[in-house]
Structure formats: C-alpha cells, structure tokens
Amino acid sequence: MPEADFFNKLKQHFEMQLPFVAYRKPILIGNLGTVTAFLQQDDYLNYTEAFSESGFVFAPFDTSGKAILFPENASEKHIFEQVVSDEAAVTGKSQKGQISEEKKSAHIELVRKAVTALQAGEMDKVVLSRREEVGLQQQGPLKLFNELLKTYSTAFVYCWFHPKVGCWLGATPETLMKLEHNQFKTMALAGTQKFQGSMEVEWGEKEKQEQQFVTDSILENLKASGIEALEISEPYTAKAGNLLHLRTDIYGTLASTAVPRNGSARLANIISALHPTPAVGGLPKEKARKFILSEEHYDREFYTGFLGELNLQKNMQRSLTRRNVENLAYRTVKKETDLYVNLRCMKIEAGKAVLFIGGGITKDSVPEDEWEETVNKAETMKKVLLK
Ligand SMILES: C=C(O[C@H]1C=CC=C(C(=O)O)[C@@H]1O)C(=O)O
C-alpha cells in the first residue's frame, strides 16, 4: 500500500476513535523497512494473560497490571514499505528544551536515596525514572510517528492508540525477546553515554557492572524457564539515536522437553522470567520493584513495559532440498513472537506530550550524572517534538 494511503487509513481510524497500532521493527541491513498497522475493528478492550492469542500486545511495567491485546482476528492489517535514510545521516540540533530546577533536584534526591540503599547492600541495582511534559503545537500523533520513523531507523518505532487507554509513541532500542519457532533471542542492554561522533569509546566500571548484572540475571532466568544451548556475544557498543549503550546479544533454543509442554504456556513462562529485566527494574527483582513503586511517586504505566507481535504466523518458504523439489509449493507455517521494551517513549495528552525517562543506579552512581543521562535520553523524543 502507498505511504499516503497507509497514513490515511490510520487517520480515519483515529478520527473514528478506534484502537490501532502502527510500527516498524529496527532496520539492521539495507534501507527498507516494513511499517505495519493493526486496526482493531471495534473499541473493545481485550486483555491477555496467557499470551496464547495472536495479535499485538501492549503491557505495563507493573506485572500486577494487565497486558492489552489487539487480536489479529479482530483487526485489519496494512503495510507499507518505507525507504529510510541511514540513522547517522539524520542530523538535527541538540534539543533539550526548558528543564525545571524543581524536577532536577527531585530526581537527584531520588537517586541519592537509592545510592544510600545500594551502598548499604539492600540492592545491587535499581532503575529510577521520571516524567517530563513538553507542550505540543500542532503536531498530532501520526505526524510525530512519521517523524520518529524517519529519524530512528535502527529502533523499534511505534504509535499505539486505544480510546479507553490513551495514545503512546516511542522509538526503543531494546528487545525483550524474539521467539521464532524454537529459536530464541534477547539482549542485555544497559550502560549509557552520549554519542559524540565515534563508536570507539571506553566504558567505566559502573556501566560495565550495571550491564553485567543484566546479562547474568537474564541468563539465570532463561535457564530456569526452559531455554537451552544459551550463547552470548561479547558486550559491545550499540548506537541508539544520540546515545550509546553497552549490549550483549543472547541466543538460545526453546527446549522441546520444557515444561509445561504447551507452547503458549511456555511463552508466558519466558515472558514472566524476563520482564522486568534489571535494565528497567533492578536486582534483586522484587526489592527493586518495591523501591520503584514506593519511591518514584508516579505510575510508570506502559513505560518500561513491553510491546510487540504475539504468535504471528509467518509463512516460510522451505529451501529446495531434493525431497521438496517434488512439491515446490511446500511451505511451513511458523509462529513468531517479537517483543520490545517500551523505552524512549511518550504518552500524548491534550496539548502535551508526557516523556518517560530513566537510568540504572548502582552504588557507584553519581546523582548529577544520572540526572544528565535522563536529559540526554529525553532528547530522543524531543528531537521530533521540538523541531
Ligand atoms: C531505563 C531506560 O534505559 C535503560 C536501557 C538502556 C540503558 C539504561 C541505562 O544505562 O541506565 C537503562 O537501563 C530509559 O531509557 O528510560
């Protein structure tokens, strides 16, 4: 479908106040991306707990909240092929906007409190965040979505709307998990510095340790949830917009003997083993969760939750071995789940965008530097908001 028709479909759906999501996965090779939309045909609010359905899932940070589903069989699906510029070639001036001193000291105070708890050995790591409001001029969500698509080719870019919930947009660099048949993939992403023109950078001990916590915890939890033959890459520097992160890729296979035997129950098991990873929660998981819920003093809602494709059928053309040359039309149908962590995101409200940004705190964190990190992270969204 041509781009203009695609956006018209979204516009009409939005005007009718019907739920939709439009998204594009990270473009890692070449300059072509597929932008997909699920347009739910009614305004029913569907949830999933079992993760056994097919569709698009949108889950909050707090695991006691429910994950929303746009069921595939209740949605119209459209795609358009987007040609993108290399992310590095997309320029634009640094956009910080006005930042309130009050917000700054509140965040620094919050980080200080966490550092005291971390130094006392109560936790190893906790991810703390804040909100920031930016006034909107004329930009509607679809225009902002289009800007995000053009600006961030290597991110998972989305615009999600439900009339009973709200409208969210984001450009996240982090995969929660991908499961293609029995092939599993995830990443440990943590440690941040500003991109200053080079990928050849040094990482401090604080960042290395904070990232190692994430890798170790993911590996431990995966083993317990039936993923075997685990392999990991060396930690390496990955670019996300104006930032660099430390990243380790993790691969594995879903054990055929994993219990429970039912495929979707296994998926629910893996999701609950992973979410929230210490890249957005902390360690130990429960202590960090409690600290976040009691100290942040706001509801993260869907920020640091996860979103993406759930059990979508992919048609796979079999390779032409001698056996299936006899039957050229032979195809296998495989299910794929592809979920992302909801970072670098914002919620659209009347006349404003509410940005959500955070960072990992360890006993060695310097509160002023952690503040600065959230300012840098907020630029991912401000680049399209303050154009
Ligand atoms: C919590 C966020 O980022 C996480 C992902 C990558 C790097 C992070 C860090 O260096 O602190 C965070 O763990 C956020 O962007 O709001």
Automatic annotation (TrEMBL):
Q: Which residues form the Chorismate-utilising enzyme C-terminal domain?
A: 105-325, 332-377
Cite the InterPro entries for this sequence. ADC_synthase, Chorismate_C
Q: Which Pfam families match?
A: Chorismate_bind (PF00425)
Where are its TM segments located?
none
Provide the protein name. Answer: Chorismate-binding protein
Q: What is the lineage of its organism?
A: Bacteria, Pseudomonadati, Bacteroidota, Flavobacteriia, Flavobacteriales
